[in-house]
Design a protein that fits this description.
The structure holds two protein chains of two kinds. Chain A is an alpha+beta fold. Chain A has helices spanning 4-20, 60-67; strands at 39-41, 46-51, 54-59, 71-72, 80-81. Chain A contains two helices and five strands, in the order αβββαββ. In chain A, strand 1 (39-41) and strand 2 (46-51) form a beta hairpin. Chain B is built from eight helices and 17 strands. A five-stranded mixed sheet of chain B has the order 1-2-3-5-4. Chain B has a five-stranded antiparallel sheet with strand order 8-9-17-12-15, with no helix packed on it. Chain B has a five-stranded antiparallel sheet with strand order 10-11-16-13-14. Chain B is globular. The chains are: A alpha+beta, B alpha+beta. Chains A and B meet through helix 1 of A and loops of B.
Amino acid sequence: MSASKPKLLAALLVLAAACEGVTPPRLDQIGDPCRDFGQVCVDDNVVLRCEAGVRVASDCDVVCAERGPAYVADGCELPVPRSMEPTS
Amino acid sequence: MRSLSQLVWRRGPVPRTIRGVSPTTARTALAASLLSLGPVTGCGSELPIQYETEHLRIATDFDHPLCKGDLVALERIISTVEDELSVKMKRVTTVYVWDDDHWHFGPNENCSATALGCINYSTSTIWTSREMLEHELVHAVVATPSLAPFFDEAIADVYAGRQARFGDTAPTANAGTSWLTADRQVGRHFIRWLREQWGAEALGELTRAGGDSFKAFRSVYGVSIEAAEALYFEEAPYGYPSMYGCDGPRLTEQSAGVAWADVLDLDCGAGEDTRVGGIGMSVHRTFVVTEPGFYTFNLDADWFDIFRCSGPRVDQAPLPGEAWEDAPLHHSAFPSGGYQHYYGRTVRDLYLEAGTHDINIGLLGHDQGTARIAIWPSSGAQPATPG
């Protein structure tokens, strides 16, 4: 392979990338700006949510407490009424 | 505001029927792509020209006509873009429009396999689905194909009347994106914020400059796009409503802020505010509720759509269930505006919040007719309709 072929291949790859365009990264990390009401589970205890325009991590128990005493955390799910807790 | 006296409503022969692809295939393809392309080379179309306005020659694939109000609205978009961005639509543009269920026959054949619409700048020709008509029209007026796709597509969406919401990527992260990868939700919101923050004149300057708007940003706005983005992240609202909503004439009040009664003339061929709505035609009106509560509607029309108007900016994300209210806020659905649809002559006990409401009153058919409407508090007496 001549030395010019890798350069040509690289140039073609750059051209192809320019045509397809880059994909912008999502703003889904702690500290990123946001405006939504959405909540995304990180694990069984932590959710990411939007507070005052900034993405923050919140403890699931805190989220449930905000909804009132009738709610408890149930892993990475929406809070469920306390009456639906497993009994055993 | 430009006079629309030159606008001609002329309906030509019924367009040919195109066959060959099932609606299911069309819907699948539609779901797979919501793209609109910029400049392309097309091979023309056989649809006959049916309508001519000051700036447009229009052929459609629909089973129904366009009403005069639709043509007025298209010319209004052209004049808005021209006035705000200081550009001029230099040539009459030929527009081929396909029903959204048939979009693949037109844009697909003339643009690309995934496009919902496109424009050929050299021949001033648009091929588009109905959904993307206004968007492509803005491209035709702006006519700066060298613009970075992120800005070009967003400007077309905003001036086409799309709503805008805060998105999931940073505007500056869209440098280097293409027609395919540019985050249009973010683009719409950022462009709308720029317009509200620093005015349409600067936006027009950025548009006319063409080229890489990310690099040209500082020369127009006096700050880097990174600094502008920081301010945007800090203070931009959740969303903006369409530029064109909620500006219909007011219904006649019978009791200030609580009761209305009116007689509306609908005329698809001659009514400047009569627009087509599928198998019918409709007109928009507005009314301002001062006393929230339950209201009764009585009409001799066939249907009405209603929503509560947002302010110039929407700071709060919609609450769960907001879109299902009796008269939801316009921004409660996305990307199209939210509304509730009602049939029947009498609809009782719709709960209306205080504020401006938009009501779209429809009749079946595309000819002409009269609709009487009365709205009053459910606990009170029906007001007399004028005439």
